Records
---
Amino acid sequence: MWSITSAAKEKFRKCHLLPIHESDEDWERSLQEAEEEGEDLIGRLKVELEEVKQELVQVLPSHFIPYVENGTLNQPTLPKNVREDYLRWISKCTKEFEQVLDVALEHTKQAVTFLPPAVQDVFMESLHDATIERIVRDDDTLHLYVNTDGGFSTKSLIHFMFEGVTSEETDTPIKIGQWFIYDELQKTADGFTFRVLFECPEAEWTINAKHIDAEYFYRPKPYTKLRDEEMLEETSLAEYAAMLNRENRYWFITPDVECVITSLSEKIAIENGSIELGQTEFVVTLGNDRYSYPLDQYNPIQFIYTDVYEDPYAHFNEPVPVDELEAAALGDDLELQARAWNTMYAYPSELKDIINTVLGKIEMTDENEMMLSVLVSHFYTEGILTEPMINKFRTVMD
């Protein structure tokens, strides 16, 4: 029995169609800000309710319907007891879906123990927000290439091999570029079954196979640095190749081919083929097959991968000397600032005096609120915050 389903995902979405203010204080603050900015907050909320009304009533308990019909469910005039009941209902829906995801994760953890180490490595990290890069069907083997650049995995490209596929089920044709939202792997009597829920467009895909294997690749370290500095488009293929670590192995993997790179000297050479870089396109030739990629759509740099992981952010973990911590954490050098906070995060007990001093001087803004919420919650859990700091950051810790 599946835990993740399109129906469960859809119910969760509909339960969160209409967020409301949680307290009288929230309402007072929002109304005051709207008045200062000349915004018709009440009118905007009426429009928002009308936009979601039809879908919301499909999942909403019946005793809330009158407040939808009279348009007060997301208004300050909603009775406090109704507001609290509605918030409890949303919280209950959230917990129910979290339990669904927990069970799916448990199924996956149990199933991967029967599969090769590479598959286990893949599922140790989340596939959420990964996208389909390529699908190849070869007899009863399904090759699924997944790009995780926009996701949460250190692995940049994952190649799943579903061997001995017995069936595929989907409610919508699967397309290149679709986003992974939730996934679940289960062990069956004669193999494995894998389900993914997608966005853009929404779809549910279930693959039944006798065996699953995987291989995965990483972006070379220079790629991340150039991307973060927005220098990828300005870097030539030759310049990029010169930045790569010659001790690593590399692959050239496009939407059509996967080949081993045999040389990074004057130009990139691939096994059993060639790469020709022209003015408007580059061409990959393998035997009698020729694949052309327009340079205004594709950058050849994006197709170079390695099997060695080099942490592009390792330098952020280099500790800052104790006597420089305060200045670094409050300074304008963003890299030094990140290193300082990482140092304090790693050694809260040893650095509690400095931490409280820095927190006392820092001003919370919209830009740093999320970061401070994570850091302060960590320091609070570690029990090193002074009472004034607890009071100062109580709202972000809640």
Note: The longest helix spans residues 80-112.
---
Amino acid sequence: MANKQYSFYPGCSSQKKASSYNQFRSTTTICQELGIQLNEIPDWNCCSASIGYAGGGELPRLTLSARNIALSEKEHPGQDLVATCAACWLATREVQERLNHDSQIKGEVNEALKEAGLNCKGDKKVRHLVEVLIEDVGYEEIKKHVKKPLSGIKIAGYVGCQTNRPFGIAGESFENPLYLDKMIEAVGAEPVTNYQKKVSCCGGALMFSEPEKSQALVKDIIEAACDAGADMLVTPCPVCQMNTEVYQEFINKKYGTKFNLPSVYYSTLMSVAFGKTAKEAALDGQIIRAKKLEEIATK
């Protein structure tokens, strides 16, 4: 397959020792396998997805993501901007939409960017990596790279909020998006087709400020997957992955449950299916071990 190049915005949580570094590692392996070249945007900054709403004002929040877009346009002209973090993708996509539909805001943002010698056109696509995998690679091509099918594993595709609302993935239903189910099938596993909490919110950053409310949401997400017979969750979102994995211990103590359900990224599934080692698939980054994936990876 011909090499495909994209301007890559990794985002804060993908940094070494950060919460989704394991996603970054497994993403690297699948992109190498599929001939996808991710060209990191130099000197990128936080997209302000969370803290930007905490009182800093709209213009600084928009300008932070616009700066990343402007740097992408300058350093990687002609390339679509791609993010692996759902929050980064959503924040950046929102800013592009705002700038392209409001000339006043665009003027104000570019006036601020002028101080750094930058200008944001916003004329290239802002895409989540799952869009690249679906639209530019395709499920059939993904199947061709499977060396170790994940047969015998039943997986609940937890889409969550941010890749689903308000923009969504092209061609997917807002109520029942199927792209994770199709990815699960492509790597030889069995998707949970009756998963009732597929697009439910995990509470996001509310886990830090009002943990009881968020943990109640996560309990329902995990419980629905377990009730449907899932061996694990798979998600495209770093916050969803963190909340559904890290807080199971707290939920068990609070509710008397005994959850021990692995929560992994789609890139982890694909890495294992593509024949990569457990380390290349970043399985060593799991808090709740995905033992069935480990077994396949070590064969």
Note: DSSP finds 13 helices and eight strands in the chain.
---
Amino acid sequence: MANFFYNSLSRREFVAGSLFTLGITPGSIASPAVQNDLTVQQLIDLILKEIPGPIPSTVDTIKIGDPNQKITGVVASMFPTVEVIRKAVELKANFLIVHEPSFYNHNDDTGWLEADEVFQFKKSLLTRNNMVVWRFHDYIHRHSPDGVMEGVVQKLGWKKFQDRLRPTLFDLGSPRALRDVLAEMKSALGIKTVRMVAGTEDMCQRILILPGAPGGRAQISQLMQVKPDLVVCGEVAEWETSEYIRDARAMGLKRSLVVLGHAQSEEPGLAWLVNWLNEKVPSVKATHIPANNPFTFS
């Protein structure tokens, strides 16, 4: 009956009803007394009521744990890595909000992993510590403005350069050497190393920033439309965008590519989320723990 009731309502109606039972009116936040007693599902509802929706088919679901569990603390990160989980335990937090999959595939299918020791170790670590993991991927990008891009822009301090109609495009106002732009970006985002199809003496003014991994076709389509001097992305398939840029440079076009790393390009969005939670629901302790880049370079 509960499932039928939920399915017969729009998500927004359901959330509004749930919040009303908590004594939360639309446009407000919960009183401190109510906030201290929030369940995982109630906090998810508070987040989603701020975002246009619903999204018919989404990966933004609870991956493990009880949604009716009372929250002792929230940790936001790109991935629920074993290290992130252990740090959350130290903080006595039991709700992980993550942007990317928990179990090594987009839909978090686990049937093929059941006999695997790595999967079982991670699953046991989560269940032993009563952790709930919720993926916040599709909806954070649906937020207005896109929460990930907003986090990146805030970290860079580039709001003044951002195109009003195309938020992924930035105009620095005058050409700058790539080495200087790169130094500024690495410092602001806390990144030690990047990969490039570029020369450090390249000049750039129009910069396209595409965090994460939207895919080669999406990246190249935007390159075709806006013809930036530089595209900065999180991740590439090495037979797609990087090869397009290599050919463009060979024919004499002024095009450069910088690859930051997937986690590092979108991690500012999780910092943005924690700031949002601290403002909207201040009595729920929220902490950002970066997952960081898994790769080392030699």
Note: The CA atoms of residues 172 and 211 lie 18 Å apart.
---
Amino acid sequence: MPYYLYTVLVPVLFIVCVVVQTVYAALFAWRTRPLYHTATTPSASLQPASVIICARNEATNLRQNLPAILQQTTPNHTTVTYEVVVIDDGSDDDTATVLQTLAGQYPHLCFASIPSGGKKAALRHALTIARYQHLLFTDADCRPGSPHWLYDICTPLNDGYDIVAGYGAYEQIPPSLLNRCIQWETMHTWWQYSSYAMLGMPYMAVGRNMACTRTVALQAMQHSLWNMLPYGDDDLLLAVTRTGVRVTAVATNGSETISAPKTTWSDWTRQKQRHLSTGKYYRLPTRLALGAYAVSHASMWLFIPAMFFATTFPALVAVATLPLLLQWLVVQQAGKRFHNHIPLWQWAAGSMAWVLYNFTFLPYIAWKNKTNWT
């Protein structure tokens, strides 16, 4: 390789990547940091909501998590009007028995058992049962972060928003390396989709903690793209809804849901393959923006070894800390609310590992699809 590539071209390209990363961190995160929606609606005026859960062979999780969902209140401990609708998607365990027992204790729980048809079919059936116009979606393996989770997530719908994106946390299991990766990737994903939502470019939410109006849900379910895949109900909901739909993110204490994380690399890999398969269906401007971020991020780290023998190597590497520091400072704000502190060194290590993550899952990001939702 010609010497001038080491001394001129590679450093210049590296600086360009750092600039893109810095602008991204400043524009898509730092400026949106104070804009997360804060619940201010008086509890008496909060419109009723239907909590939707689709479950298949989830007897253990429902037994553990559903009571907390059925005991929601407000920060002032006043009552809220809501129902919980659980669709048993052809389970062959004790799911129906658990639901029958809990329904006897909680009159606002209603459920139906249907032949196994996948999550999309279960969601469509849920909307035929749900009574209210505001819908809050979560999963059977999730527990709410507080007794006022429903109030926090649904308040923006009261204020005129159409879709609300919440944070889907995972339990922290130190000192597992896999769990550290899960915590980093989950927070990084939240940082991205919440920032885009606040800047008027929403592209995804997580189905385990997302609210929307019935109008938006029905509109999505009538779209051919939403019905094409057996998964991705959360991402595709945003991809197929009309322009002008108002989307916000909620980052208040207790507004998160908490799930048990995967404990083996193979299980986590399969989960990520499914999650990432919907990215190719995002709107074009979003795909271009996310692609520019991912390419500049990977190039920034890959150029560092190429510059090792350059006389300016220490200074150039020091420059790369600027976008990392900006990202970390923003993530720390959300981390305080969600009780997920990620040290700076771990954020930097995760940033380097994210290069490998993107190359590993590139086939599913670009063209492959998973064929089931479990």
Note: Residues 36-263 form a domain with the Spore Coat Polysaccharide Biosynthesis Protein SpsA; Chain A fold (CATH 3.90.550.10).
